[in-house]
Write a structure and sequence with these properties.
The complex is a heterodimer of chains A (about 230) and B (about 240). Chain A starts with 5 loop residues before the first helix and ends in a 7-residue tail after the last strand. In chain A, a hairpin with a 4-residue loop joins strand 6 and strand 7. In chain A, about 15% of the residues lie in helices and about 25% in strands. Chain B has a single domain, classed as Glutaconate Coenzyme A-transferase (3-Layer(aba) Sandwich). Chain B has seven helices and twelve strands. In chain B, the strands form three sheets. Chain B has a seven-stranded parallel β-sheet, sandwiched between helices. In chain B, helix 2 runs parallel beside helix 3, helix 3 runs parallel beside helix 4 and helix 5 packs across helix 6. The longest helix of chain B is centred in the N-terminal third of the chain and has 14 residues. Chain B is globular, with a radius of gyration of 18 Å. The chains are: A alpha/beta (about 230), B alpha/beta (about 240). The interface between A and B is large, with 38 and 52 residues.
């Protein structure tokens, strides 16, 4: 009836990143996971100062250098060349993870294979084959004041990524506090998914149908709005 | 001074067969390329040291550094957090063929296990990994309502690290984010060998700027204009 086509009308990763960026707080310390979450920095709202942390020991890094200007001793956790903003600091790995686990970061944003309604996150491997690699994900999900996930709402074949219980190997238990998806913004509170915003054109029934656990509603559900130009 | 070694070949002569070796660096930043390659040269010439266990964040990339060690056949086991990378064929092939053992450790836990070893702390508790397969079989304890995993210190026979400036007392500084695991590993090995781009006399580094105090460094060797691993990778160098 709404004419909403899930695969056509869901948000692109850039648009999900834009929405997540609107919640970056002025004066905050933030770690953005490798890949998709890194995109959030591109949409940091003007007038807000955010200090970015990277696991390999840099606080206060800025944009990528121009091609040819890279200094490969200065990289982020994704092994990409970075630059330093005024006020940046460099430190060793144990200090870097003290910032993570010690509760000094305001926000960590990660990607996900699955998120469970109790906040369990699976994002480091999908099975037992291949070469496993965990990096800093298992540390990052603990300690930040808010642990958010950016993800498509569904898998490539349309199955739910928001589930009652994760079936993939866990990265952390009860650690995620908010999920930004291609269809909705959802908080995790008291072991439940609480719907905060959804795309205006998708019906509640259609959204629930592609979500693997009950979406609870507390108060008003806002429109998930992303400007056309993103 | 007794800490100064005349060549990388001399310095790595102390590494025995079966040694557990820490190698500094994160991706292509901060890896002691010349020390690693000297170890490979020695193995090719003498068949030793063999059956090495490497402790490092990654498992090598392309055909240089740790990847070249794996290809050359010195390595029995790797303890690391992130062996996956776009050019990790050297590790992937041996791992999938069952010819190399892997112990996967969350990155912050790896750093803290190394730090703990250097600081004389045999075990500690961390939230990282609780409830996951990487914490299976490990003791847990609840403090103030949250459950933590007990992790053990991680020591090595030898650490190979890369500093920027060094002095005859063994004091070290580091360049940019090439610091990463290097200062931790310097503390955690029986013998720490540091390569530095500039080696100066006593007093050549302002004491306030020392990052790794010389007490943690056993041998120091000057490697002027050292290779940068990422730069070698981009040139597709095979050692």
């Amino acid at each position: 009836m709404s004419g909403f086509d899930l695969m056509r009308d869901k948000l692109t990763n850039a648009r999900i990143a834009w929405r997540a960026a609107q919640d970056l707080e002025d004066g905050s310390y933030v770690n953005l996971g490798i890949g998709f979450p890194e995109m959030i920095a591109r949409f940091q709202p003007e007038g807000r100062e955010v200090t970015y942390h990277t696991e390999n020991g840099v606080l206060g890094f800025g944009k990528a250098p121009a091609p040819g200007e890279e200094d490969w001793d200065l990289i982020n956790a994704g092994k990409k060349a970075i630059t330093l903003n005024p006020g940046a600091a460099i430190f060793h790995h144990a200090d870097s993870f003290a910032m993570v686990r010690g509760g000094h970061l305001d926000l960590a944003v990660l990607g996900a294979y699955q998120v469970a309604q109790n906040g369990d996150l699976a994002n480091w491997r999908v099975g037992s084959s291949g070469v496993p690699a965990v990096g800093g994900a298992m540390d990052l999900v603990h300690g930040a004041r808010r642990v958010a996930v950016v993800t498509d709402h569904v898998t490539r074949d349309g199955g739910p990524k928001l589930v009652e219980r994760c079936t993939f190997p866990l990265t952390g238990v009860a650690c995620v506090t908010r999920v930004y998806t291609s269809l909705a913004v959802i908080d995790i509170a008291d072991g439940r998914f609480v719907l905060r915003e959804k795309l205006p054109d998708i019906t509640m029934a259609a959204l629930q149908a592609v979500t693997g656990a009950t979406l609870h509603i507390e108060g008003e559900v806002g429109d998930l709005f992303v400007p056309e130009e993103i | 001074m007794k800490k100064v070694s005349s060549s990388v070949a001399d310095a790595v002569g102390v590494v025995p067969d079966g040694a557990q070796i820490m190698i500094g660096g994160f991706g292509g930043s901060g890896a002691p390329v010349e020390l690693i390659h000297a170890l490979i040269d020695r193995f090719r010439a003498t068949g030793s040291p063999k059956d090495i266990t490497i402790i490092s964040n990654n498992a090598g990339n392309g055909g240089v550094g740790i990847a070249a060690m794996i290809k050359a056949g010195l390595v029995r086991k790797i303890i690391c957090s992130f062996p996956r990378s776009p050019n990790a064929e050297a590790f992937n092939e041996k791992y999938l063929a069952g010819e190399i053992e892997l112990q996967l450790v969350p990155q912050g836990t790896l750093a803290e296990r190394i730090r703990a070893a250097g600081a004389g702390i045999p075990a500690f508790y961390t939230p990282a990994g609780f409830g996951t397969e990487l914490a299976e079989g490990k003791p847990t304890e609840t403090f103030d309502g949250k459950t933590y995993v007990r992790e053990r210190w991680l020591k090595a026979d030898v650490a190979l690290i890369k500093g920027h400036k060094g002095d005859h007392a063994g004091n070290l500084t580091y360049r940019l984010a090439a610091r990463n695991f290097n200062p931790l590993m310097a503390m955690a090995a029986d013998t720490t060998i540091a390569q530095v781009a500039e080696l100066g006399e006593f007093g050549s580094i302002d004491p306030e700027n020392v990052v790794t105090p010389g007490i943690f460094v056993d041998m120091i060797v000057e490697v002027p204009a050292p290779e940068q691993e990422e730069v070698l990778l981009r040139k597709e160098v095979n050692y």
